[in-house]
Each structure stands twice: as structure tokens, then as C-alpha cells.
Amino acid sequence: MSRSMFLKISILPTLLVCYVLVAGFTGFCPTCNSIVSSVFGSTPASFEDSSDVTPASIETTGVMHDISLPDLDGRQVSLGEFAGRPMIIEVWATWCGPCRKLRKIIKDNIDGLKKEVVLVAVSVDQKGPSVVKQYLARSPGSDDMIELMVTQQFRDIIKPFNSRNTIPKIVYVNSNGDIIEVATGVPNPSFLLAMAKNLP
Prior knowledge:
By secondary structure, the chain is an alpha/beta fold. The chain has helices spanning 3-26, 30-40, 97-108, 110-116, 129-137, 152-158, 189-198, and strands spanning 47-54, 68-70, 76-78, 87-92, 118-123, 146-149, 169-173, 179-187. Helices cover 40% and strands 22% of the residues. The longest helix is centred in the N-terminal third of the chain and has 24 residues, at 3-26.
């Protein structure tokens, strides 16, 4: 065997390991994510479809407990009511296909999620709460989440964590009201459950 052939063969395992590490920690490859998770004992980002994750490198602020959002009847709901429990906040719209996929994942895993976190849904439907009410009336089991409408204040608060103007988004909030992460796209169910269990 020639030296160049030997080098080509010996470099393949190194490239493969590098690929698994990078793809696993970035969530690019769900299989690599599982491998990295089992080896390092952590749960790196894992998202399906062309989604991305913004790392929680920005200093957290605790501001989520300081804001109120209108519910579907116009009553103001303070997120401070949920102080002491972590929250998973879904940002969605009735017309969004990936949002419906995320809703199904949440519904399929509702017992495990509700045991760990408060589930909040924030609709960005421009036609208002009546459209959301109509959609929810056709969706059995939709009463498991606290349904609210978006405000500009909410948009401003999450923008530094994820500036992409796409939905669905998931805002992970700890029990102190700090934003831990804002992720865009449809998550792997096991990752969503792991995040719910590990939010402080």
C-alpha cells in the first residue's frame, strides 16, 4: 500500500469523528446528536427540518415575569403568576404548518411536559383571538396550554435571543423568569422533553 493511500485511509476516521461532534453539538444531524448525547451525558440541540438554535450565550434578564399578555378573551395574564416554575413558551400561528407539527408533538407528550413546566402558547395571528379560538375549537386536547396573544413588548424581549422572524419558536424560561434559549423550528420530541426536565 502506498503512503498516500495509507494517509487517505487513516484520515477518514478522524474526519468522521469531527463530523459527528460538529453535527451533534449543532443539532444538524439527529443521529449524531444522539451519539454525542450518550457519550458526553448532555443533550445538545436537536431539531428536525431546517431549524436552528441560538445558544444561550446572552446574559439572561429575568424579564419574562415582568410582562403581561392578553388571553383570547382580552384579559391580561401576568407571566409572573408562574414564578417558581419553568415555562416553555410556544410562539405560533394557526396558518403555520410547522406550528401544527409542533402542537402535535406537544400534545403527544403533554403528560411528561406538564409535569415539568408551565406550557404557554403565544399566537402571532394578525386576525386576532377569534381566529385562534376557531382553530382551537377544532383541535381536541388544546386546553392543555395557556393561550395568549403576542404583544410588541414580548417581541422586543425575545429579539436579542433570536432575531429570525420565523415561527414556530420555543422560548425556554427558567423558574426565575430568565430566558435560557430561543429556538426556531420543530424540535425532536426527546430534546423537548429533556429541555423541560433540565430547566432550572
